TrEMBL record:
This is M23ase beta-sheet core domain-containing protein. SUPFAM superfamilies: Duplicated hybrid motif (SSF51261). InterPro entries: Cell_wall_metabolism_enzyme, Dup_hybrid_motif, M23ase_b-sheet_dom. Residues 91-159, 177-212 form the M23ase beta-sheet core domain. It comes from the Bacteria. Pfam families: Peptidase_M23.
Amino acid sequence: MSHFRTTKWYRIPCPQRAIPRISGSRLLEFSAFILKFAQQTQFMKPKRRTLYFSFLFLLALTSASAQSYTSPLNVTPALSANFGELRSNHFHSGIDFKTEQAVNKPVLAIDDGYISRISVSPGGYGLALYIEHPTGHTSVYAHLNSFSPQIADYVKEKQYEQESYRVELYPEPGLLEIKKGQQIGLSGNTGSSGGPHLHFEIRDTPSQDPLDPLLFYSPIIPDTQNPDIRGIAFYPVTGKGAVNGSNTPLRLGISKSKSGQPMALSRPIDAWGRIGIGVRAYDRMNGQSNIYGVKHVRLYVDEKLVFSSTIDRFPFSKSRMLNSFIDYETWRKEGSFFMRSFVEPGNTLGFYNSTGNGYIDIDEERDYRMRYELEDHHGNILVYPFLVRGKQQSISPPPMCETFMPWTLHNRIMNVDFMLDIPPGNLYNNVCFSYRKSASTAYYSDIHQVNSSPVPLHHRATLWIKLTADTLDNRRQYGIVEVSESGRSSWIGGVYKGGGMETSIYELGRRYAVDRDTVPPMISPVNPEKWVNGRRIEIRLTDDKSGVSSFRGTINGKFILFSHDMKSSLYTYIFDDSRLEKGKSQEFHFVATDGAGNIAEYGYSFEY
């Protein structure tokens, strides 16, 4: 191992085989390290130091580009969703490959590795595989229709061992080794999928943080389309700002010209004091009708960058902080996603860069020239300039607060018939909390309005409601329900405690009461006379209130494996001759329990 030479070229002071690969997601971190380290190497001449670290950075780029993964599908690559898209309570953690609107397309491993996790669930990812690679990444393939035979046999064995369709399996390293390009399953539409596609992720293995797969796949997915802006919102800070004479948010849509270009704001914006700004925008891709999430958002004021966000990585533990990234109230009420260009104090997402947390102080009577720059992964940029006029106006004082909840503290509200407990780490900002209740004869409690407006919680709060009529012998049949403004109720459940019901909630702003569920699930056999010839048993299982909690099927007292998917009420068992004793009468028994503990049973005898 040699020292630096004084000639024009320099030898790296370590063997090349010891230099690790650096993924695309690490390049910026690596370059920052280089610059920081260079500042500390004062003994080097500037030119020599520059050459040395430039070479290191070039080496990192070369190593990253050499880390190539194959496509997980053999169809023309096209996306129905990209990384970081805004979803209900979470960021989209991967990309969704289209499968030509069909299921059963071969799914291929993108590189050598071994299967480190297998998930089977009626919801969520449905049938999913996780492959750990020597590159330091884990690839994820979700909503599969089936696994390849070797994997399917392993999964089935474990399902029978656990006597459960739903399983989470973690095979030992080396048990299920996979080669690059090997078929691992068939694409599908299982779990919470809304149509046939392959949900695909690349994760950093040590942290399991999802990374943007386009860091590795952008060359095979052409995109020359700019993002699309749909609206801008202005948020005066309570007690510190005003917009157009009001302290309430102002949200404006943006119209398009005949040529499709975004037009100017529909009205002048006068502001004073401290305000925040948000944008509603989407991305587009070549030849696709879908809309996608915007990767980079930048807000400038008088040519100064005051806020930027780049969604290329996040920990799952912070994915729910999307609810602080967006205008949560507007999403809850209208289904629109406005992305805030300011950061609430309880929001610790790591992909922001801002001055003053993105808030803007309008303290001069002049024009503030602002612009949004929206950029996608391929570098296509939409620039939207707009004007905010600084104009002195009255700023309303903060409203009288019934109950002030600091975001940093443990907050608890309690009276004789209601309790709300919000542990610290749940609120993203201070909350002016309000509470109301109204008597009801339709429920077993009063109806409790838990805050007047929607407020997201990062984890969960505990809600307790006292029963006004405790008349059921089986108290498992009580459950807390959410009551909509139209009077419709949806079951949440809970446990009986101290003359009331206790459950967890994940947002404020809803109405709750205690109801009952005394009706068991309904078991409906589908054409039992055809089961033997069709070599399958089909059961339709439904529950109109608390939902199916568990089920179990047996033949002659032995567990049999029923598969099912959340999008259907159909439960299916495929005859398995290796586990059935043929040539005798078969006694089939099926039992189902709902969320309130009500039990339904069905039996049928047949010859096989």
